[in-house]
Design brief:
Elements (H helix, E strand, L loop, with lengths): L4 H15 L18 H4 L1 H6 L4 E4 L7 E5 L4 E6 L3 E6 L7 E7 L6 E6 L1 H6 L6 E6 L27 H17 L12 E2 L5 H9 L3 E2 L2 H11 L4 E7 L2 E4 L3 E4 L4 E8 L2 E5 L5 E5 L8 H9 L7 E6 L2 E6 H7 L2 H6 L5 E4 L8 E3 L2 E3 L7
Parallel strand pairs: 1-5, 7-12, 8-9
Antiparallel strand pairs: 2-3, 3-4, 5-6, 6-7, 10-13, 10-18, 11-12, 13-14, 15-16, 16-17, 19-20
Helix pairs in contact: 1-5, 5-7, 6-7
Length: 360
């Protein structure tokens, strides 16, 4: 651990400059996640409109789903053989939002994203239904700048990896967000590559944007420590009519190896670490369990904002970024780990910086 923020920031700047001169480094079998990050793009629907079609539903969880392609109807099964049928305008609508309202429990949000919608993003994909539990469309918001952390005391005892994440976020924000305020409004296509250098070049050329998978690829391949990409998959059902039903929204994040263990650092939500009450950095599965078990108040998030990292309590973080727990780090997720990316040695003058390597 180091205490010199200036020293680590200098290293981070050298790291990024050196990275852009490195030869191509490719993550095996990561291409599948490029299409997943388009789900994050769908968040723009909520940011641009509050329109949602209310649907009265029984109390209790959805037990099964079916799509009648002949009549373009989605059928939701509930306990006690109760059935709710929703008409879907597949031909005319890019996307539709439904507010599933039970009598005595918080509502769920259901989105339909059509093939036409994906085509407008330059993507080839099937239509998707995406279910978000216990959250309303108007409760979903995103703060790409993490501006809620501004003015809070800066975190102490940062590592070189922590300050490198500050530099990496500044790099991606400059082209991905700052240039267009929030480029999900610009309708540019999604950048697709397994190589971080190519993704950064495309961002600089202003031809596409990156979402959670692209941000994770860039961070994983630029960090000065062993890292791995983590896919947070949920249950998915194939439906008639070339459609799929996602029972929760998928996400892509990063885990870093340090002090003998893996810990989660999310470039999309902009946090460098999550610590428990004892100061231990948590991995993805541990974070999900802490949130699900109701212990978020005991957590500390290292939030990236501007050129600083600020420590926020878990309750405050989840209040400011409600989609983190409601959509992505949910109890149904089954983390899938991709191959470990080893850092390239960076030389600072006549010294070489090395890092510990995981045994697995």
């Amino acid at each position: 651990m180091v205490n010199s923020h200036a020293k680590d920031s200098t290293f981070a700047a050298v790291l990024i400059g050196a990275f852009m001169r490195w030869p191509k480094r490719k993550l095996p079998k990561v291409g599948v996640i490029a299409g997943l990050s388009v789900l994050a793009f769908s968040l723009a629907i909520f940011l641009r409109t509050n329109r949602a079609i209310p649907v009265q539903v029984p109390d209790g969880p959805i037990t099964a789903v079916e799509f009648d392609s002949a009549n373009s109807e989605l059928k939701l099964s509930y306990p006690s053989n109760q059935l709710v049928t929703i008409g879907i305008e597949r031909a005319d609508k890019d996307a539709e939002i439904f507010l599933l309202q039970p009598r005595s429990s918080p509502p769920d949000t259901l989105r339909f994203l059509s093939k036409k919608y994906y085509a407008s993003l330059g993507q080839e994909n099937e239509g998707l239904f995406v279910l978000s539990h216990k959250i309303r469309p108007d409760e979903i918001r995103a703060d790409a700048y993490n501006s809620f952390a501004e003015g809070l005391p800066s975190a102490q005892a940062l590592t070189i990896v922590d300050t490198s994440l500050i530099a990496i976020k500044a790099l991606t924000d400059r082209y991905n967000i700052f240039k267009h305020r929030y480029n999900i409004w610009t309708h540019r296509v999604l950048c697709t590559s397994d190589d971080a250098k190519i993704l950064v070049q495309k961002l600089r050329a202003d031809v596409c944007y990156v979402a959670c998978s692209g941000l994770s690829i860039i961070a994983s391949q630029m960090l000065p420590a062993p890292s791995r990409i983590v896919l947070l998959y949920g249950r998915t059902d194939k439906l008639d009519g070339d459609l799929s039903f996602l029972w929760s929204e998928w996400h892509t994040t990063v885990e870093v190896f340090g002090d003998g263990k893996w810990y989660v650092a999310d470039p999309t939500f902009g946090f460098a670490y999550v610590k428990d009450g004892q100061g231990k950095r948590l991995d993805t599965a541990e974070l999900i369990k802490e949130i699900y078990d109701g212990r978020s108040a005991n957590l500390i998030f290292g939030v990236l904002s501007g050129d600083q990292i600020h420590d926020l309590t878990g309750d405050r973080m989840l209040q400011e970024q409600p989609t983190l727990a409601a959509l992505y780090y949910t109890s149904d997720k089954q983390p899938t780990y991709l191959s470990v990316t080893q850092p390239t040695t960076i030389k600072l003058g006549d010294k070489a910086t090395s890092v510990s390597t995981p045994s697995q």
